[in-house]
Design brief:
Two copies of one chain form a homodimer. By secondary structure, chain A is of the alpha/beta class. Chain A has two domains: 49 residues, RecR Domain 1 (Helicase, Ruva Protein, domain 3, Orthogonal Bundle); 144 residues, 3-Layer(aba) Sandwich (Dna Topoisomerase Vi A Subunit, Chain: A, domain 2). Chain A contains seven helices and seven strands; from the N terminus they run αααβββαβαβαβαβ. In chain A, the strands form two sheets. The first copy, chain A, has a five-stranded mixed β-sheet. The first copy, chain A, has a two-stranded antiparallel sheet with strand order 1-2. In chain A, helix 6 links the parallel strand 5 and strand 6. In chain A, helix 1 crosses helix 2 and helix 4 crosses helix 7. The longest helix of chain A has 15 residues. Chain A starts with a helix and ends with a strand. At the A-B interface, helix 1, helix 2, helix 3, strand 2 and helix 4 of A face helix 1, helix 2, helix 3, strand 2 and helix 4 of B. The structure holds zinc ion (2 copies). The site of one zinc ion (ZN) has 8 residues of chain B, from loops.
Amino acid sequence: MTPAFEKLQKQLRQLPGLGFRSAERIALHLLVEKPARLPELVEALQAAAATVRRCPRCGNLAEDGLCAICADERREQGVVCVVEHVPDLVAMERSGAYRGVYHVLHGRLSPIQGVRPEDLNFEALFSRVADGGVRELILALSNDVEGEATCHYLTQHLPAPANGVEVKTTRIGFGLPSGGGVLYADSVTLKSALDGRRHYE
Amino acid sequence: MTPAFEKLQKQLRQLPGLGFRSAERIALHLLVEKPARLPELVEALQAAAATVRRCPRCGNLAEDGLCAICADERREQGVVCVVEHVPDLVAMERSGAYRGVYHVLHGRLSPIQGVRPEDLNFEALFSRVADGGVRELILALSNDVEGEATCHYLTQHLPAPANGVEVKTTRIGFGLPSGGGVLYADSVTLKSALDGRRHYE
Ligand SMILES: [Zn+2]
Ligand SMILES: [Zn+2]
């Protein structure tokens, strides 16, 4: 086609789930079939990039102040599910099996990929625990060596809550396939994984 | 998630081939995982929207002047394949079975959807024929009532070439499933459809 068309197609191909043909189909759709949608899409991308930021409490996506989950008083604010990434949180929410809140680490420890504790969202979590607002921590990290290392680091560095409350730490485990995270697990698997969580330390 | 996130997801869902989950996955990718890609994508979209236009000769995508196919002297410029949409042309090109050029109508006649002859790219085609540069017209329009009506209109209104050359008109037909266009046909089907084209008037 044309250079600008091919550059757009190349950008689209880098998005998850889009191959050569689907990127081509979308580029044609935006340039030929429904050109009115292109500026609308650009506007939505720019608006999202300008307004979406991290929730200062949990690391989830938010706009002003706390995210919708941290701000929801019907959620059990004392039960905190620790996940690696926002899509993991989305998968948990989709399962409908969970009524607590979250903490998103935005990764997991990996000596090989050079991810160190200071690269992850640990400090905000340790503050939440130290402040005494956490009664239970559910570690929903991947069922592999790096997830294990992250769980280990986390429990080793967990501060004592100011109010002397004991924090029960469990690790989601039952049902997660070996080597896999929560992102690609279906709702039933996540439900059983939550039910089968066990004490962890 | 957040309102801006949901608006972006809604825009993405309107793109062909993207459902709720794939739109969500792409939005998360652009906002959380690879935020550096978002401005790159916006730039590619805007650049394509600003530079890509219709080829003045055939209606295909072009930037400055003629499209790459009309400008290619190795293509048989006297053999013109008439298609409904640019993606049809792309599917034909992908088959590798065709060495002529194209004419894109950008639709087909449809009394029901209110598509009239003046809404389609007929005039430029009639000019090409009148100018005497067309030796063969291959009608690669859909194998249904509207495709048939479009073929009929086209042959009824074809002007006499200035140089007295006879235009051979064929209709691609063999191999296209009933009710279907060339867009979703595989390369083998398109190859056999081209080979089996028959005289049409
Ligand atoms: Zn939050
Ligand atoms: Zn052209």
